[in-house]
Design brief:
About 55% of the residues lie in helices and about 5% in strands. It has about 450 residues and is mainly alpha-helical. Among the domains are: about 100 residues, no CATH class; about 80 residues, no CATH class. A two-stranded antiparallel ribbon has the order 1-2. The protein has a two-stranded antiparallel ribbon with strand order 3-4. It is elongated. It starts with 5 loop residues before the first helix and ends in an 8-residue tail after the last helix.
Length: about 450
């Protein structure tokens, strides 16, 4: 069991959500690790959705507001994960109603059994259209969805030992199972007259009739190969890439013992010591959404969402429109000279917002609230670093302390945390510098 400190509590709230201001982290610290994990997982599933007339930018604003100010951050973090895992693009679907319905389905089943979620995805109109199952007929099977269901959604091409997880014949047979799975008026429609009821064999399971696809979905979800695959995907998203095999075996056991329960798997993930390890703090590159929403939540910022979808797109992540069926590749692919420039620009816009009509208005007073008597620049900076979770070097911290103890004209003046002007200028400046460091993208 780890030492439950402010640092570990803040780490959990950043990864299992999008970060939190000091007051929320202090509450988690007091609550303890197990109770905090349980409280994060306690959210009630809902089918809330963007239901107004509009486009993907409007739907994105609606969703970002839930991420940045909602009371169930893990709920929205999971919706984001499933959106990337079961990637469906607006560029092809071109129907915000179907995409919003899919988003609501992820919200309703975010922590349900993977078997239930896999079934719902297979019956989702946006997915059926996106992966061409609408063209999957008993006289002319289309293999697209069947292939991606195994390759990207449940098994992977090869297992952890490099062995093939399925064959082309499995793809052909599974495609037959999904014939007649179509849509009508933006709803799932099973066309019995277009469904192949003949005998098929998929991954050693022999099925036939009208319930064949459901049987194969259950077979896939309950397999150890799927357990390892989903455990690795969730661990990589929440903790770090390339997790240890022993860790994955333990998590797969939890998944299978819980009848494919995502909630049980998540609880096990958040209670593992490895989740709080040095690897977890230094090997996960935050996505544009994670980083930006995390900054907004941690800084307690008031937000106008007008141009935020376009800012995120400039950083490389357009919600409702991942690049392809594999989703966003993540990792260092988020980082290039252009996308990092846009991260830095938005960071400074967030930090510097002051006016009532500003796009962003952060609360920087939290960094000087209840500081010890006589605290100065060094203690204030320690508070900022602790709150942001940025692993700044000692050299960087020394330079920032010097900056905080220097007036704009260059004259040395000790930083006074009780001075509104000093807080407004120097704390904002230090926060901005820290959030534009490369280390900030790993927090």
């Amino acid at each position: 069991m780890i030492d439950w400190t402010y640092d570990s509590a803040a780490h959990l709230l950043r990864r299992a959500g999008f970060g939190a201001p000091r007051k929320e982290v202090a509450a988690a610290l007091k609550r303890g690790q197990v109770r905090t994990v349980d409280s994060l997982l306690k959210f009630k599933p809902s089918s809330d959705r963007f239901s107004k007339l509009g486009d993907t930018a409007d739907a994105t604003r609606w969703w970002l507001a839930r991420m940045a100010s909602g009371k169930a951050p893990l709920h929205e973090k999971l919706v984001l994960f499933w959106h990337g895992h079961f990637a469906t693009t607006a560029a092809k679907v071109e129907d915000i109603t179907m995409l919003s319905s899919q988003n609501a389905m992820f919200r309703r089943l975010a922590k349900a059994s993977f078997r239930e979620l896999l079934t719902a995805v297979s019956q989702d109109p946006a997915m059926i259209f996106f992966l061409d199952n609408i063209d999957n007929h008993k006289d002319a099977p289309n293999e697209n969805y069947a292939r991606e269901l195994m390759e990207l959604f449940s098994l992977g091409v090869v297992d952890l030992d490099g062995n093939a997880n399925y064959t082309q014949n499995d793809v052909r047979e599974l495609a037959r199972c999904f014939t007649g799975w179509s849509t009508s008026n933006r709803r799932f429609f099973f066309d019995r007259n277009d469904h192949d009821i003949g005998v098929k064999t998929v991954l050693g399971l022999q099925v036939a009739g009208n319930e064949d696809a459901q049987a194969v979905i259950a077979h896939l979800a309950a397999s150890r190969t799927c357990a390892l695959f989903i455990a690795k995907k969730l661990w990589t998203f929440f903790a770090y890439p390339n997790p240890e095999r022993a860790l994955l075996d333990d998590l797969a056991d939890v998944y299978l013992a819980g009848d494919t329960s995502i909630e049980a798997l998540l609880r096990a993930i958040f209670l593992r010591d490895e989740f709080y390890s040095a690897r977890a703090r230094t090997e996960h590159v935050s996505s544009p959404v994670e980083f930006t929403v995390g900054a907004l939540r941690t800084l307690g910022a008031k937000v106008r969402y007008d141009d935020l979808p376009y800012r995120l797109s400039d950083m490389g992540q357009e919600l409702f429109n991942p690049p392809n069926v594999a989703g966003w590749p993540g990792g260092l692919s988020w980082m290039n000279s252009v996308t990092r420039f846009h991260r830095m620009r938005t960071t400074w816009d967030i930090v510097s917002g002051r006016a009532k009509d500003a796009t962003f208005r952060p609360d920087v007073t939290q960094f000087v609230t209840k500081l010890p008597r006589g605290a100065g620049a060094a203690q204030t900076l320690d508070r900022i670093v602790e709150t942001l979770g940025v692993a700044a070097t000692e050299t960087t911290k020394d330079e920032l302390v010097a900056y905080m103890n220097t007036q704009a004209e260059g004259d040395p003046v000790p930083f006074n945390p009780k001075s509104k002007n000093a807080v407004d200028q120097k704390v904002r400046g230090a926060v901005g510098v820290l959030l534009t460091l490369p280390e900030a993208y790993l927090a």
